[in-house]
Amino acid sequence: MNVLIIYDSVFGHTEQIALAMGKAFDEYNNVRIVKATEMKEAILSELDLLIIGSPTHGGRYTEAVQDFLKKISKLSMSSVRVAAFDTRTSSTGFLAKIEQFFGHAAVRIANNLKKQDKVLITEPEGFIVNGRKGPLREGELDRAESWAKEIADKIKAMSN
Fold first, then answer.
1. Closest CA relative to residue 127, chosen from 19, 3, 4, 42
2. Burial classification of residue 74, based on how many CB atoms lie within 10 Å of its CB (0-12 exposed, 13-18 middle, 19 or more buried)
3. How far apart are CA 129 and CA 53, in angstroms?
4. Which of 23, 46, 65, 112 could form a disulfide bond with 61, CB atoms 3.0-4.6 angstroms apart?
5. CATH assignment of 2-159, given 3.30.930.10, 3.40.190.10, 3.30.365.10, 3.40.50.360?
C-alpha cells in the first residue's frame, strides 16, 4: 500500500498527529509523511491512500494546504482513497458556538476533495489541542494512530 500523509502545522501539533498516523502504516514499506510546503508532485504517483491534515484557523485550513488542494485538483486520482483531519481547540460556551458557526478545517478539506470527485474513505476527524499553543489533549496521539489503523483496515478489505 502506498500511503501519503500531507500536513501543515503551525505549533507542531498537526505534525505530531501525522507522525502518529504514520505508525499505523508501519507494516507497509511505502509510507510518506510530508509537510504541504515540501510536497513534490512526483510523490503523488501510484498512491492508494492520501491523508491531508491542517490546523483549524478561523474554521479554515492553512494556505499551504489550500495550495496543495489546488495542485491535486487537476489530477485524476480515481483509484486513490482520501481522508482529512485537523487539529482544533476544545471550546465551551460562547466560543463553542462561534467554533460551530465557522466549522473546522477537516470538514472543509473533505468538502474540497468531494468537489474534486476524490473518494473519501472515512469521515473527517478532528484532534484536540489544549489551548491555542497546546499541548495536545492526552490520548490524542493514540486516537490518531487508531483512526489511521481503521483506515488501513478499510483499504485492505477493499483490495481483498
1. 19
2. exposed
3. 14
4. 65
5. 3.40.50.360
Query: What is the DSSP code string of 34-91?
Result: EEGGG--GGGGTT-SEEEEEEE-BTTB--HHHHHHHHHHHTS--TT-EEEEEEEEE--
Query: What pLDDT, on a 0 to 100 scale, did the predictor assign at position 89?
Result: 87
Euclidean distance between CA atoms 38 and 158, whole angstroms: 30
Cα separation, 126 vs 49, whole angstroms: 19
Residue-level length of the chain: 160
Phi-psi region of 104 (alpha: psi -120 to 50; beta: other; left: phi over 0): beta
Nearest to 108 by CA among 141, 76, 69, 74: 69
Q: What is the pLDDT of residue 84?
A: 98
C-alpha cell of 132?
A: 491555542
Q: What is the pLDDT of residue 122?
A: 97
Q: Which residue has the cell 485537523?
A: 86
